[in-house]
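Narrative of activities, Objective 1.

The group set out to show that a structural description can be obtained from nothing but a protein's sequence at a throughput compatible with the screening campaign. Below is one input-output pair from the validation batch, recorded exactly as produced.
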Amino acid sequence: MIGDITPAEWAEETDPVTGRKVTRLTDGRSNSYALYYFVPSVTPDGRYLVFHSERSSEVQLYRLDMATGEIGQLTDGHTKDSGWAIWCEWHVDGIYNHLSAIHPVNGEVWYFVDDEIRATDVASFANRLVGRLPAGRMPIGQAAFSPDGRWFGFIHTDAANYVAKLEDRERRTRAGTFSWEREHHTSFRNSIPSTLVLVDTSTGKQRDVIATDFHFHHVLFVDNDTILLNHPRECAGMWVIDLDGTNIRHLRPADAPGAHGAMVNHQVITAHGIAYESVAYFPTGRETYFGMYDTRTERFTEALLPADGYVHVGFDPAGRFEFAECAGPKHELLAVHHADDGRLTTSLLRRLSSPAHDDQRHHAHPFLAADRQRLYFTDWSRERFAQVCAMDVADLVAAADA
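Output recorded for this entry:
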């Protein structure tokens, strides 16, 4: 139930390879993982970490008291098949997974259950109904707040059509007749019309920004007036739109000069611009580039990342400490360094216990705390369940800041 509190579970250890101090903040025979790492998981006052956990056999949100380690339950939703089906395990129940966000001013966490948008005050556990989705619609993408907290952006689609498409993809994947490389963007996504919505956080009123004939996901705010989304029609990448639905543009497409034919997969909004990783695929493998897009000049700089495998750019809100998750032959967290000749090099931060995995719950999704002392990530426990962890990187951050 909302408001239930349980004792701390954290335990400290020393990384056997790097010697860094690591704290496992959650434990037990169930998966726990932070909010999707494009948005903050820590409340504005720094007191609580908000995370998902399946400890009740359903996905709910919990808070972890950063001073005591005590864990408090924030949600009590029971939606069936509420997993983030586009990229993660679909058949989990509870709240809608990976879609929640923390208000940057008042410290509420907003989330979806059934056709409702609800909010829980992380400090007091006060819970309220914000509003409802239009009839027959369901949320499908990571939501976010504008930096000033005035707007909450989310995405919804026709529930019956979406579930039918997921069931067809699931059946064909089991049969080996669905090609993710050929069909995900050009067939599957193009059959799922989607709508971007803004909620006025002071009144709860909703208004549509844009309705498309394709699936897109991940709402991010570049600033209080501009929204960034993944992905454009028929490709990976990032596109932006003004709050009034105008001025749509695809940022750094794969065919842009200097883009190496590489498509942006993940990006995070930082004080220095949009940090991203982009990927170019070849018959013999892939190349991954690490870059920064300057929204003021509309220019970008990037360099080849010497890493083999699937990469997530790490999230430092200040945009100064560069790091990445790399799921290749080994699953690792890597610090990224710029050599004098412009090339990138890496150094090991953590070799993870979890293998490379398609399930989002087992990705590391690393992000730096606002106090710039600890790096948060997900890693497996001995029982092979995802758990929220934190690693001391204060020395590396201080060097990057300098």
